[in-house]
Amino acid sequence: MFRILKKSLQTGSVTGQHPVGAAPSEPIGPEAIEKAKPFRRSMTIREVDTGSCNACEMEMNALANPVYDVERFGVHIAASPRHADALVVTGPVTVNMERALKDVYKATADPKIVIALGDCAVNCGMFKGSYAVTGPVDRHIPVDVRISGCPPRPAEILAVLAKLRQDESASGS
Amino acid sequence: MIDARPAVEQVQAAFTQAITEVCAVHGVPMLRVKKQDLPTVAHFLHTNPGLRGSLSLLWAVDHRPREARYELCYLFTLAERKDWLLLATDLHGDEREFPSITPHLHAAKWYEREIRDLFGLVPIGHPDLRRLVRHEHWPKGSHPLKRDFPWDRVLGRVQGEYAFRKIHGEGVFEVPVGPIHAGIIEPGHFRFSVAGEPIMQLEVRHFWKHRGVEKLFEQQQLTEAVPLSERVSGDTSVGHSLAYCQAVEMLQGVEVSPRARYLRTLFLELERLHNHIGDVGAICNDTAYALAHAHCGRMKEQLMQLNDRLTGSRFLRGVNCVGGVALDLSGLQLAQVEVELNALEQDFSDIEKIVFANASLTERLENTGILTEGIAWDHAVIGVVGRASGIDRDLRRDRPFAAYDVLQPRVALYRYGDVRARMRVRLDEIHESIRLIREVRRGLPLGRLVSRPMHQPQPGAWALSAVEGWRGEILYVVMAGDAGRIHRCKVRDPSFVNWPAIQWAALGNIVPDFPLINKSFNLSYAGNDL
Ligand code: SF4
């Protein structure tokens, strides 16, 4: 017990100790911000991987670590699309995942927004044209926000989420 | 250097009739065997007490348009000195069948199903010919790695359903999980058959993420495919790109400079570090110990920020290039790395003490998800998972690449095969990685970063390269085509070998322990599905 306390005191708070995220490379349209309005104070995200290389997943997971601590902005990660306000989709949409992506979209309650995360999700990236890929994401479901990068850094994802909250102060730190 | 000369002579003596040719490919002996004799020779290699060959890779090549021939190659790692030995056989003209070796070697099971799906070649005698990569909605006759299959064909969709293995009996029911899971993890399907709590059978149904990676390699130039190799499994960007580069360098006769070799070692160990630390945290998290998870997440983040500062990529992308490394590190940067890692090691050791003082955590780890040495050997399990089950293999020691011939890593080895052993292997390897990075800094020679190719490979020339990534053995076979293109690139992430083994490790455990077992394996879905 003493050891744990000592460690916590030594470590202190690390939240926000990261480089400032670059401004989103793709502009976020007013429609997207309008659509995100109901979720300004609390947004629950369901992540769907449609064939990523898994680096985009790793950066999504990083959002939950103590350094980025995305929960402090009211952003939660849900275990089921039924609980989600937003879908974050990664990957170029493989032939084998196409059906699952559409099902998840249908299962998510309205109103909802869809965020395509990473070059693969935005334009199929390096996998464009392959027989095994039928994306990008917006061929199958409507996409509201696009975050390019391969992968986008967590700070950049945070900056986009801040933009959607119309929260200018929290975009970097 | 020729591997395994006595072994070759032994096999030759035992099968004078069956062997039609003996040659060597970049020092690895290759025996060409008559098709019908293949199972007997493979069985001999596998079971002979002096050889104890373990199947490390099985791949096919379509030689059209140059020759109307399919070639099947079998790579064995022999137990004693970890020598390599290749078997090969040919299918000429319209032949589409070959004898399955799976009845003798469990480890061949997925490889042969994969070859059937991707090439349309049928392993006769295989006990399980359900589709593997091609899900049931793929139209009949679509075998993407055949040379006449266009890389950008639109597949279309048909009706069909995968037949899971069923267990019948009173009170037996099935729990389907996936492809989309609760956490932020990759898609895959697990089908549990349970009676009450314990798992009676687990069937892994994967390949949801199949992106056609090997076909995409065939559309590229030899010198230009490094970025694609970095995206096979993003968490292993360095491991995959290094294995790819080494294969091309062998083909071009490039002698990589000592400085580049040292830097490659450094980057590979940095990749191992952040992944292993992340895994330790994730394992603790699945026992509901959030404190350790938070600390490990913080340290992993610190390492990824370090990567970013050193190379401009949190995943160390863009460091490897054909012929060496694409960027240099200054003495000052290296000094900073060492300072940071020294602090991190102290930091991490504190967490280790906290974790192992917590009985309710260690209780969950012990005796959970045991993979016995026997089953691990039967399935040719490798990497962290193998070393936790007594499989004493590590390419950094057994077939040194980069600077490991000089640096001599110590290999972690545990025998019990449970979650705790897999965690233990990672803990040892974390400390060892930090030590190796210190050694790199101490010994880093001066010299150029990129070496020039000696020659361009002939079409049809090929090379096999191996790297011990953080998960385990990464293998690449690269065959040159016309005009500097790639004719064939076989990619093998260790996950492809270890996934079937998880089906055994889960048996008898309760379903709620499966996430913990799965985390302790932590296999790549992307690297498996390709
Ligand atoms: S965008 Fe890049 S990092 Fe993200 S999944 Fe695609 S290849 Fe991987």
Automatic annotation (TrEMBL), chain A:
Its EC number is 1.12.7.2. It is an enzyme of class 1 (oxidoreductase). GO terms for molecular function: 4 iron, 4 sulfur cluster binding; ferredoxin hydrogenase activity; lyase activity; metal ion binding. It holds the Pfam family Oxidored_q6. Residues 53-164 form the NADH:ubiquinone oxidoreductase-like 20kDa subunit domain. The keyword DNA repair does not apply. Its cofactor is [4Fe-4S] cluster. InterPro entries: Complex_I_20kDa-like, NADH_UbQ_OxRdtase-like_20kDa. Keywords: 4Fe-4S, Iron, Iron-sulfur, Lyase, Metal-binding, Oxidoreductase. It comes from the Bacteria. This is Putative Formate hydrogenlyase, small subunit. Signal peptide: none annotated. It comes from Nitrospira defluvii. Belongs to the complex I 20 kDa subunit family.
From TrEMBL, chain B:
It is found in: Cell membrane. Pfam families: Complex1_30kDa, Complex1_49kDa. Signal peptide: none annotated. It is a peripheral membrane protein. GO terms for molecular function: ferredoxin hydrogenase activity; lyase activity; NAD binding; NADH dehydrogenase (ubiquinone) activity; oxidoreductase activity, acting on NAD(P)H; quinone binding. Its EC number is 1.12.7.2. Keywords: Coiled coil, Lyase, NAD, Oxidoreductase, Transport. Residues 297-451, 461-526 form the NADH-quinone oxidoreductase subunit D domain. One of its GO terms (cellular component) is plasma membrane. The keyword Hydrolase does not apply. It comes from Nitrospira defluvii. This is Putative Formate hydrogenlyase, large subunit. Residues 327-354 form a coiled coil.
